Amino acid sequence: MSKHTVTLPNGQQVPSLGQGTWHMGDDVGKLDEEIESIRLGVRLHMTLIDTAEMYGEGASERLVGKAISGIDRETLFLVSKVY
Fold first, then answer.
1. In sequence order, what DSSP letters do the residues of 41-74 get, joined into one string?
2. Tell me, what's the pLDDT at 83?
3. Opening angle at CA 24, ends 59 and 51, nearest 5
4. How far apart (Å, rounded) are the C-alpha atoms in residues 62 and 64?
5. Looking at beta carbons, which pairs linking 15-18 to residues 24 or more positions away fall under 8 Å?
């Protein structure tokens, strides 16, 4: 992989820069725009997506699910945190 990756202890390499989703999913009026912003990031090779259960009580995770629907899951690296 490129120099813009991090190697995890198991040897897997992931992008060193990803997309954060804090506050995404909070405003129903922005859902389409936020979904498209995640998809655009993926098209631009920002395939690490960070989210958390605590972001909008799961709203961010649900939004990410909609955004990556139809995208080959093997090309993405999802990071989520739990309470």
1. HHHTT--EEEEETTGGGGHHHHHHHHHHTTS-GG
2. 86
3. 70
4. 5
5. 15/45, 15/46, 15/47, 15/48, 15/77, 17/46, 17/48, 18/46, 18/47, 18/48, 18/49, 18/50, 18/77, 18/79
Token duo for residue 6: 């991090």
Map tokens 């129903």 to a residue: 28
Q: Residue with structure tokens 């120099």?
A: 3
Name residue, tokens 């993405």: 76
Block residue for tokens 């961010």? 60
8 Å CB contact between 50 and 60: no
Bigger pLDDT: 58 or 83?
58
Question: What band does 2 get if pLDDT is binned at 50, 70 and 90?
Answer: low
- Please report the pLDDT score of residue 3 as a whole number: 73
